Amino acid sequence: MSGVVEAALAELGLTVPQVVPPLAAYQPAVRSGVYVYTAGQLPMVDGKLPVTGKVGAEVTPEEAKDLARVCALNALAAVKSVVGDLDRVARVVKVVGFVASASDFTGQPAVLNGASELFGQVFGDKGVHARSAVGVAVLPLDAPVEVEIQVELVAD
Question: How far is it, in rounded angstroms, from Cα 79 to Cα 143?
């Protein structure tokens, strides 16, 4: 284990997982200057989705919030794969979340709080970010939630 960020995760009973391999022609994360942009991260655990379906139908909002937290952990793994140490994150700048939603489900912001709250717990004030929470008809592999992040790094 390395650093303050991973110690904060450990206090929550969490660890940074292995990077989820890309499902198509893209990289899990790319660095550009002092920013790292992640690809959309699904809530994969040990190489598979623990739950599939639409939020508000097959998946409860509470389950989806937990899955958004898993997506956030996977996003941190993608960032770590590029920069080596999560303590190099100066702040979480932007979170974009997609929620595969039943036609009458409007609770996307509450679902994405699973990711946002984790960033706050782990990074403190550096985890406060701008965010979009978007309801969509379907996500890859019938995942209920997908999250991507942008982080700013401490200057080299």
Answer: 21
